[in-house]
Amino acid sequence: MTPKIVFDNVTRRFDLKGGSFLALDRFSLDVADGEFVTVVGPSGCGKSTALNIAAGLLKASGGEVTVDGKPVEGPGPERGMIFQQYALFPWLSVRDNVEFGLRIKGEPPARRREIAERFIDLVGLGQFADALPKTLSGGMKQRCAIARAYAVDPVILLMDEPFGALDALTRVQLQDQLLETWSRERRTVMFITHDVDEAVYLANRVVVMAAGPGRLQEIIEVDLPYPRTEEIRLSPEFTAIRNRVWHAVYHQQPAQSHG
Ligand SMILES: Nc1ncnc2c1ncn2[C@@H]1O[C@H](COP(=O)(O)OP(=O)(O)OP(=O)(O)O)[C@@H](O)[C@H]1O
Q1: Does 156 reside within a domain?
Q2: Which ligand 1 atom lies nearest to the CA of residue 41?
Q3: In this structure, is residue 29 part of a structural domain?
Q4: How far is the CA of 22 from the centre of ligand 1 (A)?
Q5: What is the ipTM of this complex?
Q6: pLDDT (mean) for 75-84
Q7: What local confidence, expressed as pLDDT, does residue 256 receive?
Q8: Which domain, by its residues, includes 214?
């Protein structure tokens, strides 16, 4: 089967005074349709750079990203992006935030409302549909951002540390909610995190990156069944995979020099 997203030797340099900085060096990865891939690695290893190139927010200096075989040339409605900072419109209610993308898509009002309600319920914000973002907790805002991203029906979700700013309990709840939504509304997900447990708990595969320059280090299969549960999280099998990922992230060899 053709992969959904292909990173083919993607390189990104940033211009600096007196030269350039290699942020991502020949990064290659295939993400299958419906797959949940998490990306971990030390700060500065190019995780966001890679994701932003796939989102079409940043251009590659070399190589390319394709989605369904077509080169990414800019943002597109089939790719939804969720950031750590919730990026909600503060003057719009939860419902209007979720409806926003549908409005741009040209959905008629009744249909917008119906879709928005479904996703607001799905993330457990049914009672807060009329609330403004400033009255919500961080976790609720992030659930609203997830509902908004899902509502426009992107086949791909690109998530950059979406739970990074949340407390541990809310984080675990949102992980379960995201997996539940993912299993119902099957999407291809690429999810950046600094949290090794989160990376293993969510993923089919964990992509470990290395810094200096940013590159692919190792891909680790997570051979654990879905639905993921607390039992799985506490199982020796989970711990074994977590330890492998931990080792790959925290005991990296320096890059081999290449001309
Ligand atoms: N616009 C830019 N100009 C110059 N350098 C940049 C720019 N954006 C990113 N970089 C550099 O590229 C490298 C990779 O950045 P990136 O944000 O992709 O890393 P990351 O792995 O997502 O890091 P973190 O985990 O800290 O968020 C970093 O060293 C960063 O300083």
Answers
A1: no
A2: 21
A3: yes
A4: 10
A5: 0.97
A6: 85
A7: 64
A8: 1-55+184-259
